Fold:
Amino acid sequence: MAQSARQAPWNDCAHLPELVSQAHAHTPVGCVLADAEFDSERNHTFVRRQLHALSVIPAKRGKKTWCIHGVRAEMRNHFPRQKYSRRALIETVFSVAKRKLSCRAPGRCLLTQRRQALLLGLTYNLYRL
Structure:
């Protein structure tokens, strides 16, 4: 429903609201599952206040001794493990896309590589249909 391609290394945490908003424009989002890379109070509050959806992102950033507040503290203290276990299905999709489509962009310039990566995402969706 939304995808982005960038040259590595890149911090994807800041782009979660943009991608989730694009997906929400197509289909209402009720729950956002993400791995610990996307853990930030800003991402949690965006999903919960702007989209009125549940955010399930483990609060792994920071030391155990840090005093965190807000939604991140809630995630650390009462993490919904059963809902988060569904994330394994998403990882399976990524694995299949890499295996079936040999997910690499052999283009020489960055613009070509980005286009190829986005086309691989589209191709995978067509493959699933």
